[in-house]
Amino acid sequence: MGSKCSKLTSCCWASQQNEPIYEAPTRVEKEEKSEGDELPIFCEFTIEQLRNATSGFAAENIVSEHGEKAPNVVYKGKLDQKRIAVKRFNRSAWPDARQFLEEARSVGQLRNHRLANLLGCCCEGSERLLVAEFMPNETLAKHLFHWDTQPMKWAMRLRVALYLAQALDYCTGKGRALYHDLNAYRVVFDDDGNPRLSCFGLMKNSRDGKSYSTNLAFTPPEYLRTGRVTPESVVYSFGTLLLDLLSGKHIPPSHALDLIRDRNIQKLTDSCLEGQFSNDEGTELLRLASRCLQYEPRERPNPKSLAAALIPLQKETEVPSHELMGIPHSAASFPLSALGEACVRKDLTAIHEILHKIGYKDDDGAATELSFQMWTHQMQDTLNSKKKGDVAFRHKDFRAAIECYTQFIDAGTMASPTVFARRSLSYLMNNMLQEALDDAVQAQVISPVWHIASYLQATSLFALGRENEAQIALKEGSILEEKRNETS
Fold this sequence. Notes:
Elements: H1 27-33, E1 43-44, H2 47-53, E2 73-79, E3 82-88, H3 97-108, E4 115-116, E5 118-124, E6 127-133, H4 140-145, H5 154-173, E7 187-189, E8 195-198, H6 221-226, H7 231-247, H8 253-261, H9 279-292, H10 303-310, H11 321-325, H12 338-345, H13 348-358, H14 366-372, H15 377-394, H16 398-411, H17 417-429, H18 433-446, H19 451-464, H20 467-487
Parallel strand pairs: 1-5, 4-8
Antiparallel strand pairs: 2-3, 3-6, 5-6, 7-8
Helix pairs in contact: 5-7, 5-10, 7-9, 12-19, 13-17, 15-16, 16-17, 17-18, 17-19, 18-19, 19-20
């Protein structure tokens, strides 16, 4: 199936206004009103686009747990400088292409700042993929159960509960009340540290395309009887998440309800939260959890009433989420290397010196493969064009470098990230900005974790006046460079 939106052009990235839902009169409200991110309309992509965006579905780009129990893998990627998450279903899922497209398009109509929204899908042959906004700051499970530097603060846990209830209320209001496998791995954090509900859980996930499956650790009672998820089942799962937030660990609902009946709040409370909340606050959250966990589905509250009950509990409402989480903000300054500084200054001479100095040492296996094929005349000609390009690059004859490197690239014998990087800089020197950006992107497709490629993208984007995207690429380059230095 061809792409109905072959590239994310301005027609795809059309403005979409988020619809208002419950909002506390706080700093958060001001933040949402000034939210400038515009989301594209739902698009259908080709498998080739998504393969390129994820560097060939490279293992380095996998961001989800996967295996026999979770065969559908999620990759991070970049499509026209927009960071994306790509969920690739296993080949036995969704045999009916029409049902998959209908389901994806339906979920793709949702647009809200409480969701990690669905941007598009791919349905070619046996391939079934979803494309969503990329959330860079891990999952609730990571921050709650496997934290590194600090446990999640009480005020942030309350904010997570509220935002999640608001997300479910929005979905319910849009006719998407069912959610597959609601748990701490489905809650992800955006650039600002705000929690969002993954849109992937809104998709049905079965061979017949009609029902939801579940891998829940704590399954709603009615699911055991009927094998079906209902809106009330989702509320039950929300109750288990409230227990997670209060305790900082997985607690079986039946055990939790026994402790609640015995008024034994202490055993349910995360010891890391000592002194951060009153007994009344803990009691109220437990009361909400116990209502969600009622055995009879009809006795559970709906998301709208849950959100209304959670608003008065909010604390430190003027503090941004990234501060509560201890996450560096995307707009905050971060240390830059000499190369990063040169990119910000658009100091092409300094970048040239660095690229010339590192040579081809980052082209894994390229020299070996080239030398093996040197016996052919065609390969010798290709190598000669590369060598001529290197001489021109060294002597700053950038037009000649572009011509020679183009001959090498067009031969198609060897994919060299360094050649693309050098031609990218040569294009920049000749003020061919879009060509420079395209080459920097291609260098990263070949070598997904190469910091030079990200830095050259940042330089090109700065030159194009695309400041926000340039800052993202600059930060990515800095992170990749730091990781590289740590491993070496």
